[in-house]
Amino acid sequence: MQRFKAASLVRNGLHNCRLLSHCRGLCSLPDHALNDDLGHQVLVEGKAWSRTAILNRPSALNALTTAMGARLQKLYKSWEDNPDIGFIVMKGSGKAFCAGGDVVYLYHMINKGKIEECKQFFSTLYAFMYMVGTCLKPHVAILNGITMGGGAGVSIPGTFRIATDKTVFATPETLIGFHPDAGASFYLSHLPGHLGEFVALTGERLNGLDMIASGLATHYLHSSRLPLIEEELGKIVTDDPSVIEASLDKYGELVYPDEKSVLHRIELVDKCFSHDTVEEIIDALECEAGRTNDAWCTSTLKRLKEVSPLSLKVALRSIREGRFQTLDQCLVREYRMSLQSITKQVSNDFCEGVRARVVEKDFAPKWDPPSVEKVSNDMVDQYFSPLTNLTSADSLISSALQSKQAQRERERERREREERERERENDDSGVGANLLGQHSAERNQDATAYVGNLDPQVSEELLWELFVQAGPVVNVYVPKDRVTNLHQGYGFVEFRSEEDADYAIKVLNMIKLYGKPIRVNKASQDKKSLDVGANLFVGNLDVDVDEKLLYDTFSAFGVIVTNPKIMRDPETGNSRGFGFISYDSFEASDAAIEAMNGQYLCNRQITVSYAYKKDTKGERHGTPAERVLAASNPTSKSRPHTLFASGPPTLANGPQSNGTMGAPVPPRPFANGGVGLPPLRPPPPQGMAFPPMQMSVQPAWQGQPQQPGQMPPPQMQQFRPPPPNMPQPPPQGAPAPPRSLPPPMAMGNQQPMWRPPPPQMRPPNMQHASMPPPPPLNNPPLPPPMS
């Protein structure tokens, strides 16, 4: 009996070994064995409003095949068309997210002369990568483990990318005689400085910290917390990207690159890899290595000499062209370049590199040409020229991308149609209907306030009772889910006039309903047209600085178009020490940087600079391209964001940055109750008569209560002669032009400071008619008026 058990154990062990060996060698099979278990290579996991695609080839590091790409296309298309699915998640099984395309499979197909199957491989995967980049629903990629080549191509074009402590990113295509493909020429070209050229040419690996710093990833957390964030994502029942981002921020960590990161050498990278040719890049590295004896320069040179010389020149040109192309243009060009590589019309470097480094692993590839000097420009040009005998294949990827664009247009039209039908159904059934029965399409958008961050217990009736205190309400509309009959956390309140809506925004924003502060904005604001790029980062903030203080401080320089945002800890709610401000023009943002950078706010010296762009991998706002677009876009000038403002309603001509404000509009009931301050005038040059002071202010509406944070009306000023011990001002030369003052209500609730003029500028008999005369002073009589 014991012998039988022992024999069984031996047989089971041998069977397991054979099975493991078979799985590890599966990716090298040249036939259709890869398709035998396709359903298990891409798994699907469903949650409330999300679907998760799991790449499940751990033995091959989840390398992508043609069949996997086709299945992913089919899944994503069905999910994108399904209105009950809000967003999509992608992750990998095992120790890798995705190691890219299955190059061993391609190697065998090329050697067997099956070029058509290779074309199908590239066209299928590239079309899916474009689908990820243009997906109408938010896309979350969990990059836990190896993320290389095509693995980056199916994740980085998406909305959110989560990096962990186990993330390893690289584009090692030049090591196997290929070129950085799968959209790499698009996203690498947008990395900070010339980091993209460095990563593309050397194949250097980046960790999760580097991905966050360079913009390749949007969030970072420790791999041990992945179950928590996956559970959090499974509870989300909306397709709103801001809600998903808030859930990711809840578990995200604020991290910085470690000491060994190449980002600490970004200046040296820019100095060496900014040259026009590979030869010049190598010469610059050799010069730096000889001058500084830097080990990093030496190792980089060694790495460049190990890769294919032809791939170096092709990759450098590809990155430089991708900097001025869109994602679809890059994919079409990379498709042509990939077909040139597999047809061996120029060189056999791809097959030689795969043989030496992946198949036979002798690590001694014989490149053709063997050196950079022998790579001619004609050889490089052939990679970027239109295909000759493969013209039909060249249009394959283009037709797939055009089909995707047409699908997106049809999907957008379908959603708009469903939204109109849903509104009609709601109006007919009473679910989420306007309380006064007015159809939502007939709302006056300028007089409508958007109300967000609503608790599930908030009803239309409660919103009506709340907002009617600010002015006459015409209707209230809160969209509701057709299945659960629960509202989606936001609604719209229409007032009788635009002034009533402005007043409601000022007094009701950030009040708490059921413990949650509601957001009240202008519903007519087009967020896309508001964002001209004048977005600032404000750092080193004191814990006592809140959003209103930021608004009061920075609105002195121009119109703030969105809610100032202070990043806070999701658990404690405390400030993390930095925030963001968006202006409607670069003139205002430039003035804010010049005036406020390095100044003290609440006893801390703050830093003010342009913020990083979210969609360009580390580039800051304020670029010349943004300024040109903002100057040529007439819709970029929008109404100011009146979230925290306490002044009069916006005038037709709008406030002027760092200038005087126009005369205020007289207040009225249920309008903006603030009383504007009189315009301040700079003192005249010496030797001129003092201008008459206009100090009359129209009284406020008598029935209106004073609102919190609202500036009281200014007190009337009267002229009093200076005390006799006041020193006389020194004589001045030619007067300088007067400097314009900031708007008087912009810097909080401080009253404008008026100082008496010097004696030689003192006007005679200046006294307000409605005020008692000043008490007599024992001063010498005033001098006669100056002519």
TrEMBL record:
Residues 710-745, 771-787 have a biased composition (Pro residues). Residues 400-435, 615-787 are annotated as: Disordered. Residues 687-709 have a biased composition (Low complexity). Pfam families: ECH_2 (PF16113), RRM_1 (PF00076). Pathway: Amino-acid degradation; L-valine degradation. GO terms for biological process: L-valine catabolic process; mRNA processing; RNA splicing. Residues 447-525, 534-613 form the RRM domain. Keywords: Hydrolase, mRNA processing, mRNA splicing, Nucleus, Repeat, RNA-binding, Spliceosome. CDD domains: crotonase-like, RRM1_SF3B4, RRM2_SF3B4. GO terms for cellular component: spliceosomal complex. Its EC number is 3.1.2.4. Residues 406-427, 615-624 have a biased composition (Basic and acidic residues). It is found in: Nucleus. Hydrolyzes 3-hydroxyisobutyryl-CoA (HIBYL-CoA), a saline catabolite. Has high activity toward isobutyryl-CoA. Could be an isobutyryl-CoA dehydrogenase that functions in valine catabolism. Belongs to the enoyl-CoA hydratase/isomerase family. Belongs to the SF3B4 family. This is 3-hydroxyisobutyryl-CoA hydrolase. It comes from Prunus armeniaca.
